């Protein structure tokens, strides 16, 4: 199985900050990576697919980059509604696997 | 706008079978893959498996011996059966649409507790 490791596990940030979350795959996955946002009691929401493509309806302050084993989700100008937990997911091979999550908290 | 809704018992006894159905509205179930993901309370996400409308399936090897996913095109539904459940199967279960092995539409989730 491909292991997905996210860092940090949590981050404290202020409104307007730039936040960067990283995800590392245990082996190369090309660009087959998705990012999700999950708020308490809610289902995950797809933000980024295939590493860098913004899902329809997602604000442009979210961006994704990377390929191979190292990937980044960046939130440029954190908004109040962005406080949530973020997960990466590899879509390269079965079984599909998720990272452990990064919680973005208010500083 | 595609919408998904999970339904099924919220409480299942140990050793019995967990059965959930996902009803898809706002679009046809045809020509897409449809999947199940679960999340134990306070923990991360685990892919269970998914199905194409032809009936072709992929399952997580960690659950493969206990899981069956099926589709009912006439009802625009797909279903999950997980047998021989234990407390470790207690989780919120989500259904989702799958595109290129990524999940673009999700149901709201349903909590299933395994307890006697």
Brief characterization of the structure:
With 107 residues, chain A is mainly β. Chain A has strands at 4-7, 10-13, 18-25, 33-38, 45-49, 53-54, 62-67, 70-76, 85-90, 97-98, 102-106.
Description:
With 107 residues, chain A is an all-beta fold. Chain A has strands at residues 4-7, 10-13, 18-25, 33-38, 45-49, 53-54, 62-67, 70-76, 85-90, 97-98, 102-106. Chain A is built from no helices and 11 strands. In chain A, strands 2, 4, 5, 6, 9, 10 and 11 form a 7-stranded mixed sheet that branches. In chain A, strands 1-3-8-7 form a 4-stranded antiparallel sheet, with no helix packed on it. Chain B is mainly beta. Helices cover 0% and strands 54% of the residues of chain B. Chain B contains no helices and 11 strands. Chain B has strands spanning 3-7, 11-12, 18-25, 33-39, 46-52, 57-59, 67-72, 77-82, 91-99, 102-106, 110-114. In chain B, β4 and β5 (46-52) form a beta hairpin. The N and C termini of chain B lie far apart (39 Å). The mean pLDDT of chain B is 96. The interface between A and B is medium-sized, with 24 and 19 residues.
State Rg of chain B: 13 Å
How does the overall form of chain A come out from the CA principal axes? globular
Order of helices and strands of chain A: EEEEEEEEEEE
Task: Summarize the biggest pleated sheet of chain B.
Answer: 7 strands, mixed
Question: What structural class should be given to the helix and strand makeup of chain B?
Answer: mainly beta
Mean pLDDT rating of chain A: 97
Strand content of chain A: over 45%
DSSP helix fraction of chain B? under 10%
